[in-house]
Design brief:
The protein is built from 23 helices and 16 strands. By secondary structure, it is an alpha/beta fold. The N terminus is likely disordered.
Length: 570
């Protein structure tokens, strides 16, 4: 699993700097064996595909369709998780010599999940009388939709990971680790992770039947882990042991991508070099892919990630650049409008923010995240939608804070919601205008109660006390790279230097919202950036000696890659 770059920083437990040994101890990683497994995860330690509930049966069903040449259709969600998972399966089947149909619903026109009306229009969708539908990152709650598909001759395999919002599952093969009876329960796979395991199961089934022998033999599933890294990090799922192995290998595959579309995507984000981080996905790749879905053009993502011609892939990548620029403008305008709708006193009193109005549905999630950043409370942002029959629906996105499970809260008032689904930290939902007032009252009460419980649990501000200059030494940075990937379940360590001296500081950004600093070192000065800390400029210039919370990060700018400090607090 280790490429040449990783070999340069292979580190045994005995050579881990003491400051990191102390940190690992706080994470429960103790002893040479546990430390080595953490620093150097290997694919051999992954759980076997057969442990996933319904996967062996699903692999057999797919193999039957492949053997008989019958139609297979992939239906994916419009976010990074869904589009990367769809691209993974489309590329996988193509390597087997089978062209499959695929569809990504328009977020603004079709909404989330399987759209049964799309299947009813057989003329435009070119469905055969006997077809197999494989969903990616959706479908767990689509009971009626699956029944409608079965009535017109289709068979269905659901691959999903979202929480079970209802007790009734679709009457088909459901691959979802959220099922308590699943052998992957608690592993928190992303949707693309489930799709990857299905591909692995299909390959094993074809191998056992001696079908597509030469294609199966040539198939290298490690290449596909690049898609798994994209979707898993962007979907902000827990980095369990299994996810950490998948993503770590996926970051290595992404650094030297096999697929032309991935190469062009990296180039468009000015990402180069043999080490790609979770931050690169979270702040550069993920938002660019998500922008297409938010503006109703998710097809562009799958077109890009499945394109074999570099020139055509470059055009799709450029389209994503344009869509992301457009998304930023829309998001800025919507955030400004949403903030005018908020009553700050109510937000502080109820410990939550609920906004509804003439907002762009595609950026509701980002606006909710920005509100969470501003007020440190869960937020739900609704876009008002008037249906053809005159009914008014509010389609929204919820974002939460650590320690408040937003899906659990929504499930407690499910009778007031038309539809919802998601994870602990994020969810999508639809509420009828007739139920909205009661919904706001009930949810505000539930969130306030959860926030009060959360406040009773003290939170540590930092993980390690250490000087900035020491952490920025190559020995420490090389070790820190082996802690990747970072995310929920494996957060980036936060360091505290009790005495730094800021020798230069200035604000940057369109509205001077960010803070750029230079920190005095004994041998070398260190550059740093504090996002949304521009407001501190006057205080820092008057008092340059202070305590600082920080974490090292890679700064990519015009093809150059340098380490810098990301300032968290001063």
């Amino acid at each position: 699993m280790n490429n040449d770059t990783q070999k340069e920083v292979v580190l045994s437990a005995q050579r881990v700097p003491s400051v990191f040994l102390e940190y690992l101890k706080t994470r429960g990683v103790v002893g040479d064996m546990a430390i080595n497994k953490f620093l150097h995860p290997v694919l051999a330690d992954l759980p076997k595909p057969g442990l996933m509930k319904n996967l062996p049966a699903a692999a057999r069903l797919v193999a039957d369709y492949l053997a008989s040449g019958r139609q297979i259709l992939i239906w994916g969600d419009y976010d990074v998780d869904g589009t990367s998972g769809t691209a993974l399966l489309v590329n996988f089947f193509r390597e087997l010599g089978t062209k499959v149909n695929w569809h990504i619903p328009d977020r603004l026109e079709e909404g989330y999940g399987i759209n049964e009306m799309w299947f009813a229009d057989r003329k435009n969708t070119r469905l055969q009388d006997d077809f197999l539908l494989i969903s990616v990152d959706c479908g767990t709650s689509d009971v009626q939709q699956v029944e409608a598909i079965k009535r017109i001759g289709g068979q269905v395999i659901i691959t999903d990971h979202h929480s079970l919002s209802t007790k009734t599952l679709p009457d088909c093969l459901v691959l979802n680790p959220s099922q308590p009876s699943c052998g992957f329960y608690g592993q928190h796979l992303a949707g693309v992770g489930v799709a990857f395991y299905l591909a692995a199961g299909i390959r094993a089934e074809l191998e056992s039947r001696s079908l597509f022998h030469s294609a199966v033999k040539a198939l290298n599933l490690k290449r596909y882990l690049a898609f798994v890294a994209l979707g898993t990090i962007a979907d902000v799922v827990d980095l369990t042991i299994t996810n950490r192995i998948l993503v770590r290998a996926g970051l290595e595959a992404l650094a030297e991508p096999y697929f032309p579309g991935l190469k062009e995507l990296l180039i468009s984000c000015e990402i180069s070099g043999k080490h790609i981080t979770s931050e690169d996905i979270g702040y550069l790749l993920g938002p660019r892919i998500n922008a297409a879905g938010r503006l109703g053009e998710s097809r562009v993502v799958v077109d890009l990630l499945t394109e074999q011609d570099r020139k055509k892939a470059k055009k799709f990548a450029r389209r994503l650049v344009d869509l992301n620029a457009e998304r930023k403008v829309i998001c800025g305008n919507n955030l400004e409008y949403a903030l005018t709708l908020l009553d700050v006193l109510s937000v502080e009193k109820n410990k939550c923010a609920i906004v509804k109005g003439d907002l762009h549905q595609g950026v509701a999630g980002i606006v909710a995240s920005r509100i969470v950043d501003n007020f440190a409370v869960p937020a739900i942002v609704f876009a008002k939608n008037e249906c053809a029959d005159g009914q008014i629906l509010f389609k929204g996105s919820a974002r939460s804070v650590e320690g408040v499970n937003i899906v659990e809260i929504l499930s407690k008032c499910a009778d007031l919601i038309v539809r919802f689904g998601g994870h602990e930290m994020a969810a999508g939902l639809t509420v009828d205008s007739k139920s909205m007032k009661m919904f706001e009252l009930v949810v505000a009460s539930l969130i306030k109660e959860a926030m009060q419980k959360k406040q009773n649990r003290p939170k540590k501000q930092y993980d390690i006390s250490c000087s900035v200059e020491s952490i920025m030494e190559q020995e420490h940075l090389s070790c820190l790279q082996l802690f990747e990937p970072f995310g929920p379940g494996n957060p980036q360590p936060i360091f505290m230097d009790p005495a730094v001296t800021i020798i230069d500081s200035r604000t940057v950004g369109k509205e001077s919202e960010h803070l750029q600093v230079t920190i005095r070192g004994r041998y070398n000065n260190v550059k740093g950036i504090g996002f949304n800390l521009g407001r501190c400029i006057n205080d820092i210039q008057h008092n340059p000696e202070r305590k600082m919370l920080f974490t090292p990060t890679m700064n990519r700018f015009r093809g150059n890659v340098n380490w810098q400090v990301r300032v968290i607090d001063l």
